[in-house]
Design brief:
homodimer; alpha/beta; Hypothetical protein af1432; 2 domains; five-stranded parallel β-sheet; 5 strands; HD_GYP_dom (chains A, B); plasmid (chains A, B); HD/PDEase_dom (chains A, B); HD family phosphohydrolase (chains A, B)
Chain lengths: 351, 351
Amino acid sequence: MKDLSATKLIALVGMCDGKEQYLAHLLANRMDVEIYSIKKFYSHLFEATLYPDLCFLDMSEDVSRSFMLLGSLKTLNIPTICILPSGIGLALELRCLSGGAYDVMYWPESKSEILKKTDFIFHNTIFEQLVFDKHVNREKHVSDKDNIDTLMHQILSSLSVSIDAKDSYTQGHSLRVALYSTILGKECGLDDESLTLLHYSALMHDIGKIGMPDAVLRKPGKLSDEERKIIQTHPTIGYDILKTITLMPDMSLVARFHHERWDGTGYPDGLDGVDIPLYARIVSIADAFDAMTSERSYRKPLTFEEAGKEILACKGTQFDPQLVEISSDIIQRYISNGKVLTFDDVLSTTA
Amino acid sequence: MKDLSATKLIALVGMCDGKEQYLAHLLANRMDVEIYSIKKFYSHLFEATLYPDLCFLDMSEDVSRSFMLLGSLKTLNIPTICILPSGIGLALELRCLSGGAYDVMYWPESKSEILKKTDFIFHNTIFEQLVFDKHVNREKHVSDKDNIDTLMHQILSSLSVSIDAKDSYTQGHSLRVALYSTILGKECGLDDESLTLLHYSALMHDIGKIGMPDAVLRKPGKLSDEERKIIQTHPTIGYDILKTITLMPDMSLVARFHHERWDGTGYPDGLDGVDIPLYARIVSIADAFDAMTSERSYRKPLTFEEAGKEILACKGTQFDPQLVEISSDIIQRYISNGKVLTFDDVLSTTA
């Protein structure tokens, strides 16, 4: 887990009109931020004296050199967000995306949108580090296998974002659950292939929510018994959607069993103990942890420390006791002196 | 397109309690149906004198031999639906799916559900034939590349079914649009890799509908101006979801541009002519064709012939004139003596 907690370096390149001050101020308390002209940045890359984790590239001034730089960043596997002037045609956006941009952003852009895009990229690159150790073995040429893993990851991540968008209180939930599950799975000793399957399965665990009525899913506050019964059908609906993916049966099983409990009082099938598939037991903890540490309409988020205590309290009833032990160890590592930690802190702390 | 219109052979194997009569009656006017005991069927397979397109396998009597047979069917790449007694535990269902079943079905089952599952499988196998010619080159051992294509296809098909489920009138819409698009693309001379990309893009063209409110999407009857404006945001929402799949940029472009018109009066960007990407122009025709030939709350479906005339009438205004010509040729081949043809007929006719 060496890289997970390392401070990220963000490069702001070719900025004009004060964007660099705005971005540097916004991101500085979460990451290291450095500001470069296109020319200086290019020479740093050329001499390999710099390897940022993310690059914001302003496309509004020196367009042709910006595109040259974009191509180099793509080759170097450095995720880049291109910043475009608002009101410009779609053609430039498409050129950026086909030229290798990870995402584009029209300026001015809201703080929450900038942070959302930044987190999405870091989630993805952290997953890649966790599973593929790409930061260690940087290779110029990506093999077909890597391409396919990346493609599957891109597809399932994108879809998970659209699943979460159904529910006003779960933005980024599936991405975080997938990240937490992968951390926990890695600590359990799963190999890379298993971690990838676990990650995919976790990204899709809530897909059954696509079938839930908006009125129930978006209801602020607590649900009635009737509404809770409707929500509790999402695991079987998810299972029915995913079971035709016979080449990855784990995806449907995680969707179906992530609300089962170790003591057999969960739903939909009341399985208990190790009859619940391992991946579903892992996702169950990650899911509960993220729900507790995220904001809901009727309560404030718990701190990581508080949520860790809740997980521990459910050892052997709701959760697999062995997995609870491992989770507690992991959570301890992310708690520093009673500070209220959040997902963003996990991404940015140097703990 | 040789296999597309060939009559399908369905084998009903090991049936008890009159299931075979029920299924044979239900399916007989669409496909050739033959009834076998497990033993007789096994020996036919063993001697390679039989190669059905789909197998219904009853798991309620001779369980252990049924599972042996299931393994052989998987090896032979013959899609199989296992029939389980209602009220039986989940364990048997999971064993069937992990043992190679394409799907399971609890008995008794409604006619519409049986037809839905049958069509889903035929859609998938027809796609494989169209693109990979698997019926011609049956190989015992599937290569990694085939596995990945199959996996991607399974994932995107499953998700497309869940997109369509959002809207009460679009069951199977994305699967049919993907099939029609692939037929049209093949006729345009696209190579296999392009056809696969086109197929994936078509499966996902309506993904932006996940973000639409139920009240609008499920409204029976015509939409108000305000509601139509909401629905018309689905291409950009779909584009935003899919644009992070940078390894397959076509997916996001088809989502964004499938409601553009050749004459520039479409939405969201008002592109015209060949500025609209080719795949989007193809999906646009397939999309309109399926909408016209499917039932809506406020009108009956058009016949293939009627829909073909409508497409022709929009040559050069809504649709690419060259693609309209090719489409008309294809549609002509599926029209027989004024009969009211449906999607099911395309699957089953020997035309």
